[in-house]
Amino acid sequence: MTTRAQPACGRIQDTPGGRPDDSELAAAIAAFTGWRAWRTRDGGLAARKGGSPPPGAHARGSSVTELTHAIEAAIKVGPAPSLRPAEQAVLDVLIAAPAPRRVRAVSDATGLHSNTTAKALAALHERGLAARRRDGHAWLYTCATAASPPGEGQTLDDGGART
Fold first, then answer.
1. How far is CA 69 from the centre of its chain?
2. Full-model pTM
3. Are 8 and 57 in a shared domain?
4. In terms of domains, do 53 and 114 share one?
5. Domain of 38?
6. pLDDT 10s digit of each residue in the chain, 163 long?
């Protein structure tokens, strides 16, 4: 049976024999710069990197050990890439395309202006989500796959020439 004690600072802590108190949680989180942790309504633990999208918990656990492992896993994986709507539309076209496409073909398929499409393709290429190769003076874009990461095989780049 756990009893609660009211500390001088006004926080409620669990006494020994129950859940870990806030000092143990704070000590465990101190190893992760920029992270904060809290208790959830259901009694679990949650943590997030301050100011990082998406909002809400980035890691959850039922114990301090579980939470620290979840934080380490979240750090290792990294934040999910957030795409602008134009980038998402362009990526959807590249995923569905059976063959490499030029900027104009992607623009026509998305309904976006060609300049917007070119910027979105360049951003996707920079993030490693799109592969490109030269075809004369134009770029041909494809969706980058796990089997062919940027820099291997089909991706030929002349050092950042404008599209």
1. 18
2. 0.47
3. yes
4. no
5. 4-77
6. 444 443 333 333 443 444 556 788 888 888 888 888 888 888 888 888 876 555 666 788 888 999 999 888 888 876 666 889 999 999 999 999 999 999 999 999 999 999 999 999 999 999 888 999 999 999 999 998 644 444 443 444 445 444 4
